[in-house]
Amino acid sequence: MASNTSKGKDLDGQWWKSLPAITSPFPSTELNKPIDLIEDRLDVFFSNQTFREDQKTHLSVNGRIYLDWLPKLRFGFVFEESSPQDVNRVRVASLGIDANATNIGYSLPLDANTVPTQMCKFTDDVVWGKGKGKHTAYIIFHIPNFLSHGGHFIDQTQIHSDGNSKLTWRWILEAKDWRIAIDTVNGVNFDALKKKNGFQITHVGRLERADGKLFSGNDGIEVLNALGYFLSFARGAWTHPFLFYGYNQEGHHVWGVFHKPPLSPYKNDKSWLIWNDPNFISHAWIEFWEKWKEKNWRETLRICIAWYLESLNSNFVEKSLVLTLAAFERLFWQVIEEEKQITTSNPSDASGKIRELLSVSGVKPSVPSVLRSLSHLLKRENKKSNKVDDGAHIYTWLRNGITHPNAKNLKRLTKSSKQAVVEAARMANWWLEECMLKQLRYSGLYISTVDGRMRDKRNIS
């Protein structure tokens, strides 16, 4: 693990340039393939309900702990056993693992040379080691299904431990006490990952204190939890750091945590993030972390990002309309009612709250011209003297047909074209994106959800 050892903070602030390639404690992974994590002696305990007088209450046996992506992410273990029994707990004495578990399968011997195998999964997070106190020097973590490009392009020919040339992308995120480096894993075929809507570890990262001091493993994990929401928002789909390995000052890993993070298959890219200037996202991370440390803002970010991602990736357009408005309501409470970022009025209706959020964010509430069906619906209703003022009004007007289904609202919704409803959802996702970026003080180029065009946050229209 020598390649993961650093000597502390560089005085020039460019510490990441001399940091060797970040390596994982286990070999590189393949698309959708299980990953072997630990091979050790397992103490497997069986449920009392299955005991007979001739049966054992537990078994000490060589086994293997692994991660499997399909059919959904899980951590499991396998061991040889001639007679299947109901497992309820497993211990790994050498690592301090003691976790609840349950059966998921049993492979019968095909012939005299085949050993029967029992397969189980953990029902708890897998926590091991005794170093999660205040003796952690840095944490190595892994990120599945993140962006295929982005960050600083670095040539590590001179600093890689084996002397070979290593060209890679490296994201750098710093916020006061903490600094993070994230490297793209070499050899990942992102085209195949997208084609199969698959799962794979695409990045490996390192978290440490900026001053080089030791820290609590729990404090580091909280930073990585915030990082997961931040990266998911940037990607436009769920991704999250996981497979945490804590290291001491000597570069030995002394603890680990295996948990199941929120994770989406690798699909079409819906990210707003521009890859060619990594400083934009670095500045946004500083503001994100400052807000995350405040209780109310942490809940607001967590809730709004979750609803944004669910709306952005939903195939059910009505769901998108409802979720985005719920996110607007929460963000309005945080920005307008709690922080008083605007004090000119106090709207009680949903469209008025959206207008105020958009005003704070420098965005007009009009329907973008690229949304032709929605623009046509707005003009049609105004000709009927229905006084549909702008995009905020037509959006809430359509949403009311879903959540307040009286005769009048249902008639409005059913007479609107399906494409207009789809475009209203796209517009709402874009607005929510804009409002979130404003609160993170993001001031740079980005890709607009509403039309896929590159825009500049310094000149929004």
Characterise the protein shown here.
The protein has 461 residues and is an alpha+beta fold. Helix content is 32%, strand content 24%. The chain is built from 10 helices and 16 strands. The chain has an 8-stranded antiparallel sheet with strand order 7-14-13-8-12-11-10-9, covered by helices on one side. Strand 10 and strand 11 form a beta hairpin. Helix 5 packs across helix 6 and helix 6 packs across helix 10. About 3% of the residues have low confidence.
Question: Kindly state the mean pLDDT as a whole number?
Answer: 86
Radius of gyration: 26 Å
The number of distinct helices, counting runs of at least 4 residues, comes to 10
Helix content: 25-40%
Could you give the order of strands across the largest sheet?
Answer: 7-14-13-8-12-11-10-9
Regions with little confidence, pLDDT below 50 for 5+ residues? 5-12, 158-165
Question: How do the helices and strands follow one another from N- to C-terminus?
Answer: EEEEEEEEEEEHEHEEHHHHHHHHEE
Strand proportion, as a percent range, falls in 15-25%
Largest beta-sheet details: 8 strands, antiparallel
Gross morphology is globular
Distance between the termini: 50 Å
Number of strands: 16
